[in-house]
## 1
Amino acid sequence: MTPDIQTDGPLDRAFAILDFVAAQIKAVTAAEIAKNLDLPLPTAHRLISNLELRGLLQRAAGTKRFVVGNNLVTLAGKTIGSAFRTARRHAVLQNVAVEIGEQCEIGIVRNTAVVYVDSVRVKAPQSLQFDPGHSAPLYCTSTGKIYLSMLAAKPREKLVRALHLEQHTDHTITDPELLLRVLEETRRNEWARTNEEFVKGVVGCAVPILAPGGTLIACLGVSVPVARVSFDDLQNFREPLVRAAKLLSETILETNEATAQSDA
């Protein structure tokens, strides 16, 4: 049983602002924040200014509108990474890696790059290994493709056209139009594949790990030498990855329910 606490103090209002801005698909003005949260405009301006000073909010380029700040994105990434580094979730990752017989990893998106927060290797490494802390570009990794595909159409196109599509291999997609078509297909199929797009000789695939409300929080993927598994044969990994991702999602729901019960 938790003690009674104030629920309308400055900290509560600051968190409400962050939650509201993070839920939007476009930048918002201070007036919009104040109106939606029923805050006096001067109060909203003061809180927004403090959050902006701390890098938790920032102005969209060339406007007076606000989006989440880089420090908030970094904090969110660290929080998600920490949440997945638990014994039970690592066990789920271990089990699917053994079932598939290849390295499996959990990746999140942080500052327009994919960062891997946990991985399990079941065979001796032959090529690129996505170990915890390793990062990779959004556009040529399966996890990055899922993240981009789940954005609304306009923000997705804007981000794709803003990315520096560097050529890593002969298979890297550097044409924004082609990448957008691939992302639309990824969105329809609800999983992603990469065909030697980041490192020559390595193919991979990933499926989304969703929060109870359907929000993407991470991806579960596999990376494998093409000498051992062809791009087309990645299809065989989809079902076990989807099952494992569902288990990982359920552990998040169970954690939320346990927290709610402890607070009752």
## 2
Amino acid sequence: MSYSMNDGLEVAKQAAADIDAWLCAQPGTISVINVEDDPAFQSRDIDLIWTTQKGEVLVEVKGDRWNRTNNFFFETHSNLEKGTLGCFLYTEADWLFYYFVNTRLLYKLPMPKTRDWFRITMNRFRERSTTTPVGNSRYTTVGRLVPIPTVMLEVSGVVRQQM
């Protein structure tokens, strides 16, 4: 499977905008700051800083259009050719908000609890890869297709939310 760089950016921007607006409308929200373009937060794979009356919450947003498969795609390598780990394996976010943009369905995954579970169980899930053309070159993203019902059943604290 192949995706263009623009397709991925479009989905990511839509996901971040939708989640930002939704968080701003939540009771107790003081502020939401988008830090996607801040290198200090990019290196930690954090997209949003959500401040509530209870404190600061670091959020990574994963936008996806492939909601018909009933799977999450947990990235293990973002760029296989460069040996770059997938964001799922290194994010320092408190929560991964996995959002299906077409259906406006959000799954809130507690981190690092979900990652710890995944590392132990990942070999039981199918590995898949996609290629993305960039100029005259391309890179390969690798991850695992993880059934959503399995995550809901085996990881405590996951929340499914229709937006």
## 3
Amino acid sequence: MKLEGPYAYQVSVDGDDSYSVLSAEGRRTFLAPVTTRGPKLYVFSHSSSLIYIGQTVQGMSARMRLGFKADGTGGYWGYRWRKELAEASLHIWVLNECPEEEEFYALECIESEVVYLYRSEFNQWPKFQTEIHFHESEGNHRALAREIFNGFNKEAINKAMHATSA
């Protein structure tokens, strides 16, 4: 297994159930390969800190629509951060070289390991993480989670290190 990405976007909340995206290339749409069906992990961040991690096999437009239009039907309320923030950064990784029958398990393992790393580092869960599914992980899941986690929270880690050394 290996990660391809991240593919970066800025997401703006346009209303209770709508959003707009801006790619790093200046396009106002999601771009391949995140538009196609296949295993992906994604992170929303705000002020350089991870606030939510998710996983999907849908194209990102479909996943975002679900997260923005959810109203509690079936117990799913969608992205909680959309009610409190005007925008967030979105980074998406495509999981490659993973057998199709292992995708779901691998995605949930990596997702939960990123959340665990956050909890271990900051003694708190990501601010807008609303649920997580834990599975017994393997070294490759933990390594990929570390790869994702290391791209975030640098500012918060630096602040915490300076606070404890002062």
## 4
Amino acid sequence: MTKSFDFYFDFASPYGYLASRKVGALAAAIGRDVNWRPFLIGAVYKAHGGAPLAHPLKSDYVFKDVFRRARIDGVEGMQMPANFPTSSVPPSRLTYWVEREAPEKTGAFVEAAYKAYWIEGRDTADPNIALDAAESIGFDRDEAMAGAQDQAIKDRLREVTETALERGVFGSPFILIDGELFWGGDRFADIEALYG
């Protein structure tokens, strides 16, 4: 059995986007596979109270920092979507449908959906944007639409979100590896040092 780790993220998270671009390389470096685990971070905030960017100084800092990080990582064209923050339910559900139908394409779907929001500025709350992402990697649009409405897929997203809460996930991105939690894309070096 191949070892893996859980990569928890929300499509509305800019740090989640930046980390998603590098998580495959991290997994390869430590000889593991990525379990792509989109969850609804709004449910975490609702359960624990507060909002991550409610403080104006923190908000100003985060949006300077994330674009600085994008430049350092060589990510061109990253922009603040006009409708930030928005619902990430459609791409999150479709991630689990893709995982069920063709698990080897899960990472490619996540990349396409994240790019639509953070590079192209499209609205992830619009189910058509997630369907465009699925279609761009070879899925039939009508099948993907039906899959996103499958009750088992809806339940899967809810279950993963509940599991994230139970495991102590409070932000995006988060990696759970062998029972250890690592918050943020800036912990990848620590993970490689510990598990490489």
